[in-house]
Amino acid sequence: MIPRFQPPRPVRWTLVALAAPVLLLAAAPGTPPYKDASLPADQRVADLLSRMTLEEKVAQVTALWNKSGLSDEKGAFAPDKAKTTIPHGIGQIARPSEARDTGGQGPGVRGPRESGRFMNDLQKWLRETTRLGIPAMTHEEALHGLAAPKGTHFPIPIGLASSWDPDLVERIMSAAALEALDAHAKSHPHGRLAEEREALAVDALAREGRTDEARARAIRFRTTYPSSVFAGVVD
């Protein structure tokens, strides 16, 4: 008879430690499939969609920007207002640093810590109060640096394009992404997306205006500029 293998005690504890995360992945009894992280994404999405009402689906393709109707006069999250403004949830809070309802008292912006606290409170409310508990997406703009309080503003896109230096553009956008992470991730565990709106050909029609957001008329640089931007943000 082959004797049963008994690993030494230190090895045994190591195996238990490695197995623990696997056990933690198992969903609690009664957890709906869409909340079960161990299931394939397609299955979770299908389950969630089957449960959503029309109002909840519309809410998920809706975004709120400044004067969102979700905060008090000090800029803090206001649950009572949220019950009226977003009873079915919300897809995205655009630029939380600007989405402050002050009632005309003081500036309508939030600093990094205020933004983090606001979004944490909002996400907690969405997950615990709305019927399906879907958290919201959020973003800040970074067309030429993080466009939020305490963010660094670099030259406008047409100015950056005039440098003819893709490596410089990549370093600039890396700085914007790092500022977004440093300024917000510490106080906002749900993360924040430093969003770059690629206005590649906004100057093609002058009547559209905002030509300062154009990259360049030269085709060669217009095609390399976006790669530098995205590489900077992602890296």
Spatial separation of the terminal alpha carbons = 57 Å
Q: For the largest sheet, list the strands in their spatial order.
A: 1-2-3-4
Low-confidence parts, pLDDT < 50 over ≥5 residues? 1-24, 185-191, 193-198
Mean pLDDT: 76
Strand/helix succession: HHHEHEHEHHEH
The total of beta strands comes to: 4
Instruction: Report helical residue fraction.
Output: 40-55%
What is the molecular shape? globular
- Residue share in β-strands: 5-15%
The helix count comes to 8
Task: Report Rg.
Answer: 23 Å
**What can be said about the biggest beta sheet?**
4 strands, parallel
Helix/strand structural class: mainly alpha
Describe the 3D structure.
This protein is mostly helical and 235 residues long. The protein is 43% helix and 6% strand. It has 8 helices and 4 strands. It has helices at 9-25, 41-51, 54-60, 79-85, 112-129, 157-161, 166-185, 219-234; strands spanning 63-64, 92-94, 137-141, 193-195. The chain has a 4-stranded parallel beta sheet with strand order 1-2-3-4. α4 (79-85) links the parallel β1 (63-64) and β2. α7 (166-185) runs parallel beside α8. The longest helix is centred in the last third of the chain and has 20 residues, at 166-185. The chain starts with 8 loop residues before the first helix and ends with a helix. Mean pLDDT is 76; it is low at 1-24, 185-191 and 193-198.
